[in-house]
Amino acid sequence: MERLNSKLYLQNCYIIKENERLRKKAQILNQENQQLLFELKQKLSNGSSNQGNNNNNLSSSSSSASGH
Question: Which DSSP state fits 3?
Fold first, then answer.
């Protein structure tokens, strides 16, 4: 019985260590994911504001070209 308890104790220790390792890895992946999401949102917001500027530039250049 004592041998079984020792074996189960060692397995439990291994599982706890593995759980800590995976938790740290998940935390790092979550941080990377949050950073990538932030960068994507920035690019999308910059892209939409640039898209708006390009549309404005095109319409103003079309207006001035048709005025001549």
Answer: H
Tell me the two tokens of residue 17: 């260590």
CA 67, CA 13: separation in Å to the nearest integer?
Answer: 81
- Which residues fall within 8 angstroms of residue 4, CB to CB, at 6 or more apart? none
Q: What is the pTM of this model?
A: 0.60
pLDDT digits (tens, 9 = 90+) for 4-20: 999 999 999 999 999 99
Please give the distance of CA 26 from its chain centroid, rounded to a whole number: 12
What is the spatial distance between Cα 21 and Cα 50, in angstroms, rounded to a whole number?
43
What digits encode the pLDDT tens for the residues 44-57? 999 877 766 655 55
